[in-house]
Design goal:
five-stranded antiparallel β-sheet; alpha+beta; elongated; HIT family, subunit A; 14 strands
Length: about 290
């Protein structure tokens, strides 16, 4: 499966446009790739789309925008991509009783030697990430891989061939047969890259306010959605206080900049207006009325 690159990660503004659509698509996609094995173990099979979602969400939460930091996130999640002929999964040990979490995990020490994928009569033991393994402790989340023999994609698509995941740990035995939707999704992993769930290339980022100039504590901004033919808002650079509570020097600075801009617009268009809301936050609208 092809590793993620910077070009696969859209700008934050584009992601916000399609985030809700992608979230719904990811939930549907993951539902086909999530396999519960007994009451306390779940495997989520990863691919480019599940991992791209993780990168996008991490960057969104952390406010990451620079290319170097985004690349670091990509590098982390690319480690979870399945290689050629592999399936890759995140295994979750889910214990709902808080008092029971540590004892339950301790009982599952050695789990890495007891998870297998069966395709017909062929057993493929999971290989766990060795960096996560400790002799005396076990975590609730593990990354693992299944290196499958040639021809496995065809077998996964053959309804006559049973496919199941089995855990045979002394303290936990469970087995789950994979349904047709899951098998088809995993067979796609063996074929190559999945189809993108959302077309980011076709998305248009929402318009953004444009800062025209900053002067001391105030600035002039052209709104993304202007209310007039020419519309510039003069306001404090920091969150604006209510007009009635604004310090005199801040109000004076805003008004001076607004008048300067108004003179320039009047020269250009022959007319210009200034409007001030005396009730809301301090902001001065300088605009040219529509014809």
């Amino acid at each position: 499966m092809t590793p993620l690159v910077l070009a696969d990660i859209p700008a934050p503004e584009v992601f916000e446009v399609l985030r809700s659509q992608l979230r719904d698509a990811i939930l549907t996609h993951k539902a086909k790739r999530r396999v519960a094995v007994g009451a306390n173990v779940t495997l989520l099979f990863e691919d480019r789309e599940t991992l791209r979602w993780q990168v996008l969400e991490m960057c969104r939460v952390e406010g990451t925008r620079d290319a170097a930091s985004i690349q670091r996130e990509i590098d982390v999640y690319n480690e979870l991509l399945p290689g050629s002929g592999e399936l890759s999964a995140t295994l979750f040990i889910e214990i709902t009783d808080l008092d029971e979490i540590r004892p339950a995990l301790d009982r599952l020490l050695g789990l890495d030697a007891h998870v297998a994928l069966w395709i017909g009569d062929t057993e493929v033991r999971a290989t766990f990430d060795p960096g996560q393994m400790e002799e005396e402790r076990i975590s609730a989340v593990h990354y693992l891989r299944f290196a499958l023999p040639a021809g496995s994609a065809t077998l996964l698509r053959d309804p006559a061939v049973p496919v199941r995941i089995r855990v045979d740990h002394p303290s936990y035995q469970a087995e789950t047969r994979l349904d047709a939707a899951t098998r088809e999704s995993l067979a796609t992993d063996l074929d190559g890259d999945p189809e993108p769930l959302v077309d980011f290339d076709g998305a248009v980022a929402p318009p953004r306010d444009q800062v025209l100039l900053e002067r001391g504590a105030v600035r002039a901004v052209r709104p993304a959605r202007p209310l007039a033919r020419e519309h510039i808002v003069v306001a404090p650079r920091d969150p604006a206080p209510p007009f009635a509570d604004a310090p005199e020097e801040l109000l004076t600075a805003c008004m001076a900049l607004a008048r300067e801009i108004a003179r320039e617009l009047a020269k250009k268009h022959g007319a210009c207006r200034i409007a001030l809301d005396a009730i809301g936050p301090l902001a001065i609208d300088v605009f040219v009325p529509r014809d």
